[in-house]
Amino acid sequence: MKASVEWLSEYSDIDVDAITLSNILTMTGSKVETVNQLGNDIKNVVVGKILEVKKHPDADKLVVTKVDVGTEKMQIVTGAPNIHVGDIVPIAKDGSDLPGGVKIKKSMFRGIESCGMMCSLGELNLDIANYPDQIENGIMILGEKHEKDIGKDIVEVLNLKEDIIDFEITSNRPDCLSIEGLGRETAVSLNKPFKNPRKNIDELKIEDKKDIEGLKVDITAPDLCYRYVARVVKNVKIGPSPEWMVRRLKACGVRSINNIVDITNYVMLEMGQPMHAFDINSIAGKHITVRRAKKGEKIVTLDEQERILDEENLVIADDEKAVAIAGVMGGLNSEIEENTQTVVFESAVFNGGSVRKTAKKVGLRTEASSRFEKGLSAENALRAANRAVELVMLLGAGEAVDGKIDVYPTKQEMKKIKLDVERINSLLGTNLTKKDMIDILEKLDIKVENDVVISPYFRMDLEFVADIAEEVCRFYGYDKLDFTLMKADTTLGIRNKEQKIQKKVRETLVNRGLSEIYTYGFVSEKDLDMSNISSEIKKYAITIQNPLSDEYKLMRPTTVPSMMQTLAINSNKKNQQVKFFDLSRSYRNMEKEVENGEVPLQEDILTIGMYGEDVDFYSLKGILENVLESINIRYYDIEKETKNTSYHPGRCANIKIGIDTIATLGEVHPEVLMNYNIKERAYLAEVNVTKLVKYSRTNKAYSEVPKFPAVERDIAVIVDEKVEVGQIEKIITKKSKKLLESIELFDIYRNEKLGQNKKSVAYSIIFRDKNKTLSDDDINTTMNVIVSELENKLGAELRK
Amino acid sequence: MKEQIAKMKENSLKEIEKCIDEKQLNEVKVKYLGKKGELTVILRGMETLQPEERPIIGKLVNQVRDELETLLQKKENEFKRKELEKKLETENIDVTEPSKKIKLGTLHPITQIINEVEEIFLGMGYQIADGPEVEKAIYNFDKLNTPPDHPARDLQDTFYITENILLRSQTSPVQARVMETQKPPIKIICPGTVYRSDSVDATHSPVFHQIEGLVVDKNVAMTDLKGTLEMFAKKCLGENTKIRFRPHHFPFTEPSAEADVSCFVCGGKGCKVCKGEGWIELLGCGMVHPNVLKFCGISPEEYSGFAFGFGVERIAMAKFGIDDMRLLYENDARFLKQF
Lengths: 800, 339
Known about the structure:
B: alpha+beta, rod-shaped
């Protein structure tokens, strides 16, 4: 909401400059976005009279003039074609400033000195619309009436100074979407009396009538239209508005149209009540009905667009058709025309939510709708209608018709709140007296009677003691509140298990050289396809109704596409040796949770993505094992996975605890790499952190440091290539029983001599009995059992 | 006899002095102190002496032996040290050659800010809470005093899945969930991902991160909110940071405020980061609205509380001097490694 300081000063004495005023208002809650001080950029430009015009001796297009600027007569060279002796013009003297940082200095034009410059509209940053008798490409001619102003500053003479403050008004204060509301805030903030220039309007009594000039009004939707006031003016002369009105409208960013339309805008800006004016003759049957639209009902709005409505939307209609979308925009069919004779001013109040929905549906957010949707006071509607009529008379734009039509089915309720001094002080941490509070409230026109606060009609936001506390605090001063720390029972500040694990996982990964990335949870169907995500998982994806674009249409059921995209971006940028992790979520609509109004499955997923010379499947596996180790998960199985379509079928594994898969890791499927245009092997892992939390043990138990010596034995077996070393290890582990301390694979050897598709796998096994020293016999027995089991189960052959 | 011993001592000392390495030293040692060494021989010939001479000579011999041994030891140590010095000299390395370190990764700047904020509030006795990102509208709005027709629902431009399920536009639904399930005193912060329908540009992202805080207890006052946030600002942004409250409006707090901090880049003098104002808008906050307490099953008559919330990206950008929000989500390795 923009407001000129000049207009605000109608409500309050303002004895500070615009910047100071802005700072004060910001600190009392009317936040200032910008201050625009017009006219400040014009300096040393005065009114001058042309005394003489002569041809330039050396230039056909230039003339040499003599100009009277009051204090002196100076010579100016100009190329402007529209000047004559006797013209009164703006003169930028030597050393003057013009808008846009232009500086004017004495200079020579083809050997003739020019002591300044005559100015055009553009050079003074003035709009031709406000000076219709001027020309765009020539010097501004001020006219004879400025004869008396010669030598005076142009900024004063043309009244160019204007301070415009742009406020950010919060949604609870629609009353401050008006100069009146801001004027009241200004007065209280500056600790000045609020001058109410609308006192006459407040005291005005207008007779109620059933019809005026044949016009009748009915409301069939009192839940959506709380009040409808109509006042009529006749013998209307449509024409331009006076300069002061145009100027104030312009300061608020509103363009002047004609006197009647300008009055509706002026009243809206002044009082915060949107108005609508229409030609009484355009109303079929002269009968206004405020009703719900019919399904599919059409209306062409003032902006010449056709809008289609339904029963959710409210319209102002005559006996045949809708003439306006209530609270949003008028219809083209009832627009004020040049020849309009009788004008109806509509000042109505609608349900905010309904206007909001309608504006959204028709895709039209107007000055009116954005006010209505915040909830306006029905009490204000009559004042606004009366003010509009008053302005018509003031402008001589028409004659008032006696009486008003005032249909007011839904009375505005005036809220009463107990002035609980103790509660307010305890909420604020202050020590104010009742009198302090009442003083502040009364300045804001909020009455207090018998310790009960009565919210005024324009303050519909005041409902609770907390609201009163805020009013008190705003003008006591937020900056005067102390800084205290609570005196309360001790509470424990500690991370829970899940948070500790996440922290640990991040630390481990960073220590292993991985960098963390952050990705959007959005994916597109194309992304899922590019990552070869199976249809089984794709069907869990959650669709956003109003996505920013197709690219961001789904909530990802898997984090793989997000990581692949990141790897692709880095590969494309030629970043080498990339190791990333992402600790984020996947979102899965497993069993129609979303459709049933429930929250879908959202699990924390650790995603790892890597490529580069020093990474392969086993380095990735090592990283994952380090992660598990760091959070104390020691027992798990690693099993080959051949069916996950995002991964290389021969180079993918699942990590399982029991039957629960907690992670998948592997080389990215070559097809997927191709889809992302990644030209080298890349590695990917997905770890379900939500599950890890379940399996991570937080208690660690000490076991005695061994007293008896260990025995180490090496064993090498030749097996078929297809036998996984994991199978060998399982057998060794199982058959060693409690004697096994550790087992380490130290060599895998392949050679033609071993036979086709054979490999030799060598282990170093350490045995220990915690109760005695193991004898050779003990070990030999165990080793024999192991070897025969390997032979039987895996067809292994002991390598001698 | 005495002269013989004295002579031998003199000779031996000279010989020891002349030694140039351990080997020679050892030879001297054997020559005098070995099994057939000169001194040993004298000692063995003691019995041929007069009984009254024996103790005198014996003492003398022992003295000489001690003296020789001490000198030999000293000389030996000297040689050992010289030898070691020689060895050390050959083992000289260039310490400026590259190390064998493992290249560490980095935590994302957003995580770093969240961690920092978490530590501060953990220290003040807060717990960390989180909840679903795909959330029920009732938690994102209704319970936070934002009924279906409330204009705030429009302002926030929320992503909807269905009419009742949405992507949370703030982390406040976590607060509502905690209030519903825990009894006061409640002291939590809720860091998390939030979603708003903003197109991607240098200062906007449809996905971003918030940290909100909530305290509900008996007699919690607005001055406590100010004190807590001042403490936070000083710990997070520097001990000289000042904090300023301006009145504002949020549906879920009343009274509400926006808090500015003195610019932590220029200290309040005015610079590019604070756009010359000396203050940076940091967060929104206020006293928990009585309706919010009521809707979450806490008596507004008995309890009061405060809440605050801010965007993590904004702080990360200001603190690390990042001028484009897109960098945070592009994940270029060359960007990430700087943190």
